[in-house]
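quick one, 137 residues, struct below
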Amino acid sequence: MKQRRAKNLDDAGIKEIVEILDGWSEKLTWDLLIDAINFRTHNEYTRQTLHKHERIRNAFDLRKLALADGDATIRTVRSPELQKALERIARLEVEAKRIESENTQLLEQFVRWAYNAHTRGLDSNFLNRPLPPVSRG
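---
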């Protein structure tokens, strides 16, 4: 039987993969991530495809670093409700760190763009002009 090609990664697919990484708590490798993505989305991507997307690559590196530092340990308790809450808190803390990292990268990119615009003699009035209307005809 011929294997179907996985759909192209769009913003929603990238977001779902990053969320998988946010909840990751055991050993992390590209192969294990590919298996988890295949299990959850029924799409099998290659390491090269995942590595090509900056958000996925940065989330992977950030999570791998956190796991190596031992930041991923979740305390276990007897109460299932409390355990679920602790897992959710840990996941949200990971997500907050990732979003903070993405925000820093975007701010750095903005500073780079502002500098490059300044060196080309582009002022803020030129840069803040509205986009031209879309011509659908």
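The CA atoms of residues 21 and 60 lie 7 Å apart.
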